[in-house]
Amino acid sequence: MKVLANDGVSQSGITALENAGFEVLTTTVAQEQLINYINENDIDVLLVRSATKVRKDLIDACTNLKIIGRGGVGMDNIDVEYARSKGKHVINTPAASSQSVAELVFAHLFGGVRFLHDSNRNMPLDGDTKFKALKKNYAKGVELRGKTLGIIGFGRIGREVAKIALGIGMKVIASDKFVGKANVKVEFYNGQFINVEIETEPMKDVLQHADFITLHVPAQKEYVIGDKQFNLMKDGVGIVNAARGGVIDEVALVKAIESGKVAFAGLDTFEEEPTPAVQVLMNGRISLTPHIGAATNEAQDRIGTELADQIISILN
Description:
This protein is α/β, with parallel strands linked by helices. The protein is built from 13 helices and 13 strands. It has helices at about 10-20, 35-40, 55-60, 80-85, 100-115, 115-125, 130-135, 155-165, 205-210, 225-230, 250-260, 280, 295-315, and strands at about 1-5, 25, 45-50, 65-70, 90, 150, 170-175, 180-185, 195-200, 210-215, 235-240, 260-265, 285-290. The strands form 3 sheets. Strands 7-6-10-11-12-13 form a 6-stranded parallel beta sheet, with helices on both faces. A 5-stranded parallel beta sheet has the order 2-1-3-4-5. Helix 12 links the parallel strand 12 and strand 13.
């Protein structure tokens, strides 16, 4: 049987599949050519990340396709229910990238409170001539320890974020429509751990009381954070979106930054990917990454292995 990993897959995943007798193709096929390629090459399994779209036209046209796999959590680039209604298996790896996304959240948070995103823009330009001025500009950083982190969406990734926050001495509050309370296990290098039970709260309470806010919700039909939600927040709040583009109203975000309501933002996902709005890209108070939450070697190894295990289990 043949597997097409159109957006790539780790070597660990390739090895596991090949050892089970599958042929793995890692050719990146353009979206408009994908249907023909799948049919001409008798592809049984299509693996994607976020770039390739698997919509009804492809599902209808590729009748021999047995499995559609998403390397990661969100499957908004796949017509999941339609595919399943046509007898195809749709799989993903919801746990594999949680730690990587959580660490990126804190990369943005640590960078934001110490102005690293802006300093790294300006030091190469003016560091040799305006060193003292830049030192003064970036001299009013704050510590994360002792501050309150509000987590919107308390699933796997939200809980991984909570573990890091608790580990560095932050207070954690959370909101989730489907989770009433959760036990967060904070593990240390030497095998010791502590368990912390966190009860979720209404989102408006989290927005009002948090010093920093991070979003971990799926794509929505409407904004999760817009003008109304920004108005509830503390002045000088920091906000991170490493979830999905479109959960934050970026026009409202820029307005909140310009008014001083938001001190800084960290964005890994954008409303208009892969061409984010210029006013977002050029704002000196926004820390930017190009949707790389799951892009660590460790996460990609876990994703590849988990996909391979599921495929082997289904088809063998």
